[in-house]
Design goal:
Helix 2 crosses helix 3. The chain has 2 domains: 15-49; 69-221, Vaccinia Virus protein VP39 (Rossmann fold), CATH 3.40.50. The chain has 6 helices and 7 strands. The protein has a 7-stranded mixed beta sheet. The protein is globular and about 65 Å long. It starts with 26 loop residues before the first helix and ends with a helix. 36% of the residues lie in helices and 15% in strands. The relative contact order is 0.12. The chain is α/β, with parallel strands linked by helices. The structure holds S-adenosylmethionine. The site of S-adenosylmethionine has 23 residues, from helix 3 and strand 2.
């Protein structure tokens, strides 16, 4: 059937907002689509990825991105044979903590704010038979005290590395080792590194990091 438009009527071909049946979207359609996509993205962010993060400043929020099997293997290779408490700051689904425990790093625990990921990590611990031996705690990594941690795993965004470096320098014992995945600490010199590209991990020994920081501070005073 032929369609007719009266001149000036809304919906006339060529007017903003006009959409041909089965054809391209008009401006209003595009706007609605953009709003709906934005709302869906926000809902995914707020409900699935970042619930529990309301009290964390936006600049310190890091979304979930699980480490690959190679990244896990590399990180734990740099902690092999070490003693003391091992923590993953932002433990996600618990893969690094579970593997750390499996390799004999004990006690092993993860701090995580996302309740879905905490549930998943606890379920995976139960399934692996580690229930009661590893801990996944709903804590803000910026607020926990790390002074009794000897092995610290950090798979976080580069943007939070400078404030995290300040926290680690202030709290960790001298014999602690920090292992960073994906991105290094920009102002620290690693004691060792393993892997290439995104699989690369870096180990930092706090005693060396402090010595270097003190040297820099003395140089800047001269
Ligand atoms: C890039 S993912 C890494 C997950 C896990 N470590 C892995 O490598 O598979 C970062 C994780 O840190 C968590 N996270 C971010 N900010 C946090 C905070 N302030 N306190 C606790 N966990 C946090 C996120 O929910 C996310 O699961």
């Amino acid at each position: 059937m032929e369609q007719c438009w009266e001149p000036g009527e809304p919906g006339e071909p060529g007017e903003p907002g006009w959409a041909r049946p089965g054809g391209a979207l008009g401006a209003r359609g595009l706007l609605a689509l953009a709003v709906a996509s934005g709302a869906a993205a926000w809902a995914t962010w707020a409900v699935l990825l970042m619930p529990g993060f309301r009290r964390v400043p936006l600049r310190l929020q890091v979304p979930y991105q699980p480490s690959s099997p190679r990244q896990v293997a590399n990180a734990l290779a740099l902690l092999r044979g070490r003693a003391g408490k091992t923590v993953d700051l932002g433990s996600g689904d618990g893969r690094l903590v579970l593997e750390a425990y499996r390799q004999g790093l004990r006690p092993a625990l993860g701090y995580e704010l996302n309740p879905w990921l905490l549930c998943l990590a606890k379920y995976r611990a139960w399934r692996a038979g580690y229930h009661g031996n590893v801990s996944f705690l709903k804590e803000d990594l910026w607020k926990v005290n790390l002074s009794d941690c000897h092995n610290v795993i950090v798979f976080l965004a580069p943007s939070v590395k400078p404030p995290l470096a300040t926290k680690l320098l202030a709290e960790l014992p001298d014999d602690a080792r920090v292992v960073a995945g994906r991105f290094p600490f920009p102002s620290w010199t690693p004691s060792s590194t393993l892997g290439q590209g995104l699989e690369q991990v870096w180990a930092y020994d706090m005693k060396e990091v402090r010595r270097e920081a003190q040297g820099r501070a003395q140089e800047s005073q001269v």
